[in-house]
Every structure is written in structure tokens, then in C-alpha cells.
Amino acid sequence: MKQLRVQDLAFAFHPDRPVLRDVSFAVGANEVVYVLGPNGCGKSTLFNCLSGVYAPQGGRVLLDGADLTHMAARRRAHHIGLVPQNHAAAFAYSARDMVLMGRAPHLGLFETPGRTDCEAADAALAAVGLSHLAERPFNELSGGERRLVTIARGLAQESDVLLLDEPDAYLDPKNQHLVQETIVTLARQGRAFLISSHSPNNALLYGDRVLLLEGGRVAAAGPPDAVLTAETLSAAYGAALEIIYVSHNGAQQARAVLPVRSLHSLSSPANPHNPTCAPGIRHLVG
Amino acid sequence: MTWPSLPRTRPRSAVEALAALRETRNDGRLRFWVLLALPIPLAVVALALGRYEISPGAVLQTLGHALAGQPAATAAETLVLQVRLPRILAALLIGAALGGSGAAFQGIFKNPLVDSNILGVTSGAGFGAALALLLTGSLPLASAAAFVCGLAAVLLAHLGARAHGGSHTLMLTLSGILVGSFFAALTSLVKILADPLSELPAITFWLLGGLSDATWHDLPLLFLVTGLGGALLFALRWQLNVLSLGDREAATLGLNTRQMKLLVVGVAALLTAAAVAVGGVIGWVGLVIPHAGRLLVGPDHRRLLPASLSLGAAFLLVIDTLARAALPREVPLGVFTGIVGVPVLFALLRRSRTGAGWAE
Predict the structure, then answer these.
(1) Is B125:B117 a contact under the CB 8 Å cutoff?
(2) B297 CA to chain A: closest CA distance, Å?
(3) How is residue B118 annotated by DSSP?
């Protein structure tokens, strides 16, 4: 069982303006952990520190006791991978060639990808439903398709832990679902995923645990049900948010996070398609 | 009774038909191998061409004799073996060195607009040669000085970038431009100091580039550097793909970007310096060839790098043969590559909208 343990991580671009302070948490194998928090709370910086893009100025990143921050890049890439947020390539590589680059840690300095690597790349492309675009130039794909290709590259890397920086951005509802179902399936096979997102609903639906960042610190951590309450969410985002409980066709209740304004419009008599909804604790901030 | 409707597979336009044909043609594999073999027949043809024409059959016969260890028997054989062959080999090696290092530089700097001169190699080499010509007037010394000063320029550019916070690509580019300008200024100073009747023409002629003085003596070092450097870049061809994603992504994919970049830049600079030392300042090849390669075999460096080596060799051989045999007076190579290179680049840029292998 691989476990990622982050201890007292600290990072700052300028000494007097820390981006991350005393960040500690753990992610076990089989786990899907969502990192939530407002814009600028340090989610991307956290991922960059974990994956070795930035060197943390304090604390440790341990994988089964081995410190990732002092590890050779190639060995580290076996343990931890990153699917970055924005993506463009200088040259118009095909989608398959882009995914193939995820195999870099598995290849020696003078090696080129072989049959197993190509199979892994094709399997990863199939997992995100893009096999039909394998030969298309990456730069001609839509934003969402590029996202899926980069996610496939992360999957092809087959690292113990994969960090995904806002994988749901740019994706339509079907592909959001597809990607997150794939992630949950892979997690159950022994891999770990750390996902930053601006969608608390995705965390509620697919997350095993949630890490709420605020101002570079961990504001709350735990199972989604415990962390994602109207109080903590409203306080973290500085906006009035409400949890609603929806029962669909009499089945068990699902929970969803909504901004208060849409809640008003839902419950107003002017809306004839009013679903059965029972508002939770109303706690308005600001 | 109704007929089953036939599937409509007719392509909508001629362009699509061509694209479909291109895909079915074994993934462009044939074209790739033809491209790699291209310099060989071209070399045989080039050996036959010149003021004194020799048939390609006689050329092959001469080469066969030479390989069998027989000395040149006729004036024609001497001409082929002692005059044309070293020059043609030099053109092939220099073209391969410039094309290959151009592809490597463009990949590393993830910028399709850089060439072998990005880090000041050519300017440094030019200064070295000019200084040696001013002080000694010796051509072999000029070559050696060009080689040393070309590498010194890259080292300066690298140190300058390191002093300003690491191996950042933008810093390295800026540092390279500064070093290049510095050496260009020094070269101008040397030209001012040179005797306008004897030394200045020699310097100017050297700076314009050319292979008319190429002999067997120039080849061992050029062959060694181009062979080893080209082999090393070829071995790293797939890593160039990953490096071209940029430092951050390459690092998360497990590459030691600092070491890799140092290695590739070092090898590419060595190739350029060796080429400039023998052929003088020959522009455009390092810039144009990788673009042509991308149009023909795509942006994947696994194919682009060998294609650039081969295409560079073929291009410079054709240009040098034209300069040598087609015109009544020999035109300096550096001038000719510019005159041919600019229209070629324009033609490529026109095609870039329909997918030249780089992003806008």
C-alpha cells in the first residue's frame, strides 16, 4: 500500500507573502481526494510542489517514507504525475504522440517507446474515449479534447499518485462523468488521485475525502459529507452557498451545492418545474 | 424490390482525397526512407557535374576503384577523388550538422523560429576566424579559431543565463542574442583594423561561407564531430519531443531538464561550430531545413531529427553544386543559401496554415 504523506509543506514566491503554510495531509492508495478552495488559495502551487516543479521551502513530501523532493526526476515521476491546467504544445504532435510522452519515466535516456508503451498510450486514450482522435494534431483539438488527451497522458504515466489540476474544467457533463468514473475505477485498483476542482458537487459525487484550502492553509479535511457543509463552504468561498437534498424518483437522497440565488429561483412559485427539494440549514454569510 | 443503398465513400474534395491517399500510403513510411536515402544518389550526380563533365557511370567506376585501393589512373579520376569528393563530403556533413542542430535547437527552445545561431555560435566563430585571418592570414588557423570561439560564445551565453537565475529558456535566448551581438561588434572592429587590400577580402570571403577550399584535411574532425554529435542527437530524438513541452512538464514526466538541455545544446553547438569552421558562415540551413522536414514527415522528432540530418545534407549539396557548377562565377554559399532559403521559407509559411507541424 503506497501512501503519500505531506508534512508541514511551505512555499512562497516572496518571503513575506507565503503561498502555502503548514500544509499537512495524507493520501492512501485506492483514494480519490479532492482539493477545493477559492481562486488563489494555493491549489496549483501545492500540486507544483508535490510534483517537483517547485522546490518546497519547508516540510516534506513522503511516499512510503521516501522524500520525493530530494528524489531524481525520473524516479519521482514513477511515484507522482501531474496533469497540468493549461496546455499548448509548440509543435503539432498527434494526440497519440502526446499521450505517449507520459511513458517517459519508463524509458531510458536513449530509448524510444516500444510496443508496451504504445499499448499503454492507446489504452489510456480509449479510457478517456478519444481513440478516434489518436492521429489528429493535438493543437487542432478543442479545449475539452486537449484536456482529455493530457489526462490520458497522466494515466499512461502509471504513477502511484496522479495529481490532476482542475480536470473538470472545459469538459462537458458526459466527459466530466467519464473522466471521474475512470479515476474512481483506477483508484480501486490501487492508485491514488489528488484532484483540484471548483466543483464541490464533483467532490460530493466522486471524492473519498476532501481537502479544503484557504489562504495557503488546510481549512478542513475529511470525508465529503463532513467537510462540505453550507457553513464551511460559505466561509471558504466568501459566498452564500447552500446544500440541497434531492430525492430522485423516490430513491435515496443526493446532495448538491448551490449558490443561494439559484435556490431562490428554484423555490419561487414562478418556476413551474419545481423539483422536490428540501433546503438544508440556511446559513448565509456576507 | 429495392437495392441496398451503397455506402458513400467518395471524398468531398480533392484535398480530402489527397489526405486519404497520404494516410493509406503506409503512414508516410516510404517517403521517410526515400528522404533518408536521398543524399546518396545526389552525391553521385554531384560528382559527375562540373566544368569538366564525367558520366555518373564513370563516377561509380572511379569510386569502385578507389574502394578497391587502386590509385587514380586518369585526370578525371584524380578530379573526382581529390577535388570533388572531399568538397561533396564536406557539403553533406556540414548540411547534416546544420540541419540536425537546427531541429534540436528548435525543439529545445520550443520555438520554430530559432536556428543554429541562437546562442551566438556563428557570430563567435566568425570573430575567431576574422581575428586569425587578421593576425596570421592562415586558413587552417582560421578554422581552428572559428571552432574554439564558436564554442566559447555558447559557453558565455550559458554562463550569462546562469548568472541570471538558472536555465530558463527565455534567459538563455536573451543571453545568446547579447553574446551574438557582442561578437558581431568585435568582428566589425577586426574588419576596420584589417588591410582593405589583402586581409579584408579574405575575411569577407570567409564570412560569406563557401567550400571551394575544402580538402581531405578538413574532413576528419568534421566527420568525427558530425558523426558523434548526429548519433547522440539521434539517440535523444524522442526525448526532444518531451523537452519541447517545456521545462515544467518535462520535469513532471521524469526528465532532468537541466542536464538534458545542457547536453543537447552542447552537442548542437559543437555541430554548428565544426560546420562553421570548415564552411564559414552558412545561414538559413538550420532554420529552413527543420521546417521542410516537418512538412514532409511531421513534427515527431523520432522522424524529424533523422529527416533534418538527411535533408540538410541534401539541401547543402544541391546548393553547393549549383554554386560550383551552374554559374559562370562561384557564388559564396552563405549568399546562395539566403537567396534560395528565403523564398523556400516564404513558400513554407504560406503552407503553414494547412498544417506545417507547429502551433501558432
Answers:
(1) no
(2) 11
(3) G
CA distance B106 to chain A (A): 10
Pairing state of beta strands A277-279 and A241-247? antiparallel
Degrees (nearest 5) of the Cα angle A207, A161, A189?
70
How far, CA to CA in Å, does B322 sit from each of A242, B46, B202, B329, B333?
Answer: 78, 9, 22, 11, 10
Instruction: Tell me how far apart the alpha carbons of residues A276 and A273 are, in angstroms, rounded to a whole number.
Output: 10
The amino acid present at B257, given as its one-letter code, is: T
- φ/ψ of residue B195, rounded to 5: -70, 120
What is the percent of chain B where pLDDT is above 90? 34
pLDDT at A264: 53
Report in angstroms the alpha-carbon separations of A190 from A3, A83, A171, B106: 11, 19, 26, 40
State the cell numbers at A133: 482522435
CA distance B77 to B83: 10
Q: Which is nearest to B241 in space by CA: B294, B167, B313, B289?
A: B294
Instruction: List b or e across A89-115, with b for residues whose CB sees 16 or more CB atoms inside 10 angstroms.
Output: bbbbbbbbbbbbbbbbbbbeeeebbee
Of A232 and A272, the structure prediction assigns the larger pLDDT to A232
Residue A194: closest CA among A29, A3, A32: A32
DSSP single-letter state for residue B331: P
Q: Which of residues 70-99 of A touch B (CB under 8 A)?
A: 72-78, 81-82, 84, 88-94, 97
Please give the residue of chain B at the shortest CA–CA distance from A138: B359
The grid coordinates listed for B12 are 468531398
B227 SS3 class? helix
Report the candidate in B316, B261, B310 with the shortest Cα–Cα distance to residue B104: B261
- Flag whether residue B169 sits within 8 Å of chain A, measured between CB atoms: no
Question: In the structure, what pLDDT confidence band is assigned to residue B13 with cuts at 50, 70 and 90?
Answer: low
The per-residue pLDDT for A15 is 86
- Shortest CA distance from A73: residue in chain B: B254
Of A97, A109, A157, the CB nearest to B241: A97
pTM score above 0.90: no
Query: What angle, 0 to 180 degrees and rounded to 10, lies between the N-to-C axes of helices B199-208 and B169-193?
Result: 150
Which pLDDT belongs to residue B253? Answer: 94
Q: Concatenate the DSSP letters of all residues of B139-161 into one string.
A: HHHHHHHHHHHHHHHHHHHHHHH
Which range in A15-24, B104-113, B322-331 is most confidently predicted, on average pLDDT? A15-24
Report how far residue B248's alpha carbon sits from residue A159's, in angstroms, rounded to the nearest whole number: 17
Return mean pLDDT, chain B: 84
Number of A:B CB contacts under 8 A?
90
Per DSSP, the three-state class of B358 is: strand
Residue A68: its chain B contacts at CB < 8 A? none
Instruction: Pick the residue from chain B with its C-alpha nearest to A87.
Output: B245
C-alpha cell at B144: 581552428
CA A240 to chain B, closest CA, distance in angstroms equals 37
